[in-house]
Amino acid sequence: MNNQAQSMYALSPDQVSDAIKSQLHVDEEDKNTLIVEGHMGSGKSSILKTLDAQLPKHKAIYFDCTTKADAGDLMMPKFKDLEGNDYVTFATNEELGVHIKDQPLIIMIDEVGKNKSLQNPLNRLFQERMIGMNKLHPDTLVFATTNIGAEGVGDMFMPHTCNRVTFVRMRKPNNTEWIEWGINNDIDHSLLGWCKDNPQLFASFEDVKDPDENPWIFHPKAFRRSFFTPRSGHKASNWLKQRHLLDDQTLTAALMGTIGDRAAMDLMAFVTLADQLPTLQSIKDNPKSAKVPDSAAAICMVVYRTLSALDKDWLNSWMDYLPRLDTEAQAMFANGVRAPKYSKQSMVMTNKKFTEWAMKNNHLYTADKV
After folding, report:
1. pTM exceeding the 0.85 threshold for the entire prediction
2. N or C, which terminus of the chain has less Cβ within 10 Å?
């Protein structure tokens, strides 16, 4: 029942970021520290990047607990002389950023559940925004990340630490959310098309009783050295971008060691569809005669590639090519442009040919999602 409740109230990365930012409106002595629990490779660390972009007056600080042995890596003794008398003070690890006195910080304590020896020294930071004798800027935000305990990778907390913080579960992104992120982060278009057709890649093992039901993902009941997560998917994209330098056997082997055997085989079968795609140059030069793929999957890849690579110089050519695609693909492009985080939204929506197309095809806008 507890796991069901946690899954039901698991938050998206944006919701987690909003919860952390809400502490800016709380009195200094009442600020809460969130510990974000999430699946491995699901984007917990990206929260710091999101907050850094949204809070330009703050300084982002990343503190990795897995590279620290014990409390001595947090604070070290430093000897001073005061009026002839020796005394000891403590110098704080520079990674915590407390030497930055005139700027609020965003401190992310990463993998905190894997280093039990650091939890006691960090308790005062979590509850009082203090590190030793160092008082943090009143607008400083503090949060931590950890894996969910059911993954069995060693994340544990002592009760008196748990009682000082707020735990929230961050859910995995679904394939639509990850595709939207991938379009803005140069993820290979063939991988994005494959993810659209395979939403099970983003499933939680907590919803899969028998690991054989989903051989693509991590499951604690099955030994899989490599498996698909948003993180390993990103690494697979990096391999796909080098496929022009590799033969199929080498590329497949690299993908197997990145996202697992089953996922690699399935992805390679999908990648062969890329041969059906028209080149970008052909769309730029001859949009009314450039090749239109035969399969729906290949058309999907054309749309994702365009959303990622689109530039003002050939936007008009694309708008001449777009009506040659089926209505589902046109709707996919329109909804991709309308996605709140699409980085090229303004460029497309102010284009004359796009606005003319939009007026004629307004009924397509909600026909499909990215």
Report:
1. no
2. N
